Amino acid sequence: MIECIPRQRSKCLWWIELERHVNGYKYRFTGKPFINSSSFFIYLSLSAMMSSQIPTSLPPLVLSVIEAIKSLDISQFVSCFSDGAVLVDKSKRHSTLASIQEWFNGLRDHKATIKIQDTGISESEVWVHVMMDGNYETAYGITEPFPLYLHFFFHKDWTLKLLRINQISPNEPTMRAV
């Protein structure tokens, strides 16, 4: 069941409150509506946006992935990926558990840390905007924290289908070559 309640806020003209019941969990989001021209969906910024704490209103699987990255726990991270799930980072596709483990070992080798900046949900994805830091100077020449977006796509039963990691905000228009 989805219930949308328009209401006024001081900084924006209209805000929408969304309540969604999924697999026995109740998620409540409040945010500014965003309409995509190709398909109608509502984008909502979650209330715990600028906190370094992990928001509790995200689906449990997303929370588990975030916690695994924060603690650099490879077994917790890999356990979030079922058969057929794919991780795409830097346009490289990791479709086996062995290649996903190898990718995660890169995070551990660079002593990666993340800090949540923003989160959002739409009909097609859940995304988490993070600032990533670590020892990237030798390998990549990166000396400052850099922004990344974790885009989570799910099957209908809320198992992970795809985790895409890039620097593209979900609000930025993009084109795909055919």
From TrEMBL:
Database matches in InterPro entries: NTF2-like_dom_sf
Alphabetized Gene3D superfamilies for the sequence: 3.10.450.50
Record protein name field: SnoaL-like domain-containing protein
Native species: Zopfia rhizophila CBS 207.26
